[in-house]
């Protein structure tokens, strides 16, 4: 239920993050979350670009231009509602809670004192400003070699990129002005089975699937606000953009199943085949791109993608005997010349 709407330039109140929600007039918009499984947030750009702040049991969305929307009693719901734009782009309740952080920074860390969390991957490369917010609310600047954990929220600044290698040998890169959530990664190296779930809220990205995707068709999932990708062993590039702009998914190798928020699914199984999703109400259509078009749109983030450990090992095993034989031949030639 919308309690007040006074959205407009110069109409914003003086409230800032951390201020008690004492009056609906302090916000551009107040929405009551009680009794809802999903809520539509006006001004789609705001939802996907907003800062998410806990105000007690309320959720405060602070837009890029300072606009403020209060979702009253959001965190009293179990589970809280998913948040949607008017065009059908969606942030799930789990993603919203991750973006908003814990009830109190450090609380999770104190509760888990003495039980060290296991990393799910590590940072292979960093360019520019890249930050991570841990599940306990701690925010740090990321550097090469740093571990990443389940529940981390990664953000890249202007001209910032990050490349990650996960423990199942999958690799992922996020380009500038991006934001993503490492929802879940569980992997058993003995059986090579597990499950993985990542959410890209905004920004260009690319990834190569690893051992988890090989263990089952539904084992690895990558989500954006307008589409979910079912991974079948593949290399993908994509762009998660605000509503109305092109949210593009390009298959580079393998096969993926792209499903929009209305449940319409499309399989991509040809190299450089792409799909553009602008809203939940537009059926996705496959479009064939040329290699030059892929390079033009995703060349930057593709350069940040770490090499796959499995592919590197395979190359070394293939080239190893040949390199040894070549070295032996060179040594023999040198000995003959010396005689």
Record the SSE blueprint.
Blueprint: E1 2-5, E2 29-32, E3 38-40, H1 44-49, E4 51-55, E5 58-62, E6 68-72, E7 82-84, E8 90-91, H2 93-100, H3 107-111, E9 121-127, E10 130-133, E11 139-141, E12 147-148, E13 153-156, E14 161-166, E15 171-174, E16 179-188, E17 193-208, H4 211-214, E18 220-223, E19 227-240, E20 247-260, E21 265-268, E22 273-277, E23 286-288, H5 291-303, H6 309-338
Description:
- By secondary structure, the chain is α+β, with helices and mostly antiparallel strands.
- Helices cover 19% and strands 39% of the residues.
- The strands form three sheets. The protein has a 15-stranded mixed β-sheet that branches.
- The N terminus is likely disordered.
Features of the shown structure:
globular; 339 residues; Jelly Rolls; 23 strands; 2 domains; 15-stranded mixed beta sheet; alpha+beta; disordered N terminus
């Amino acid at each position: 239920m919308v309690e007040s709407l006074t959205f407009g330039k110069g109409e914003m109140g003086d409230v800032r993050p951390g201020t008690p929600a004492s009056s609906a007039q302090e916000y551009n918009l107040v929405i009551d979350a009680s009794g809802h499984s999903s809520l539509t947030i006006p001004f789609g750009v705001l939802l996907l670009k907003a800062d998410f702040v806990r105000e007690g049991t309320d959720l405060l969305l602070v837009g890029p231009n300072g606009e403020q929307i209060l979702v009253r009693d959001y965190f009293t719901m179990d589970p809280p509602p998913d948040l949607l734009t008017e065009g059908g782009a969606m942030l799930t309740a789990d993603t919203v809670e991750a973006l908003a952080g814990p009830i109190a920074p450090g609380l999770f860390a104190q509760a888990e004192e003495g039980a060290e969390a296991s990393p799910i991957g590590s940072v292979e490369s960093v360019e520019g400003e890249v930050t991570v917010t841990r599940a306990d609310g701690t925010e740090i600047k990321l550097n090469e070699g740093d571990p990443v954990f389940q529940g981390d929220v990664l953000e890249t600044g202007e001209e910032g990129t990050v490349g990650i290698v996960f423990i199942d040998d999958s690799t992922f890169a996020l380009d500038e002005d991006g934001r993503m959530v490492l929802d879940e990664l569980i992997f058993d190296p003995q059986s090579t089975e597990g499950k993985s779930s990542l959410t890209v809220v905004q920004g260009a990205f690319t990834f190569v699937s690893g051992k988890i995707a090989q263990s089952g068709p539904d084992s690895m999932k990558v989500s954006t606000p307008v589409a979910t990708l079912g991974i079948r062993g593949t290399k993908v590039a994509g762009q998660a953009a605000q509503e109305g702009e092109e949210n593009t998914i390009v298959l580079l190798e393998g096969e993926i199943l792209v499903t929009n928020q209305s449940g319409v699914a499309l399989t991509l199984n040809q190299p450089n085949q792409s799909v553009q999703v602008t809203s939940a109400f537009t059926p996705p259509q496959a479009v064939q791109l040329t290699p030059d078009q892929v390079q033009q749109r995703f060349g930057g983030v593709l350069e940040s993608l770490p090499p796959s450990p499995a592919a590197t090992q395979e190359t070394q095993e293939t080239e190893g005997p040949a390199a040894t034989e070549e070295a032996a031949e060179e040594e023999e030639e040198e000995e003959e010349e010396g005689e």
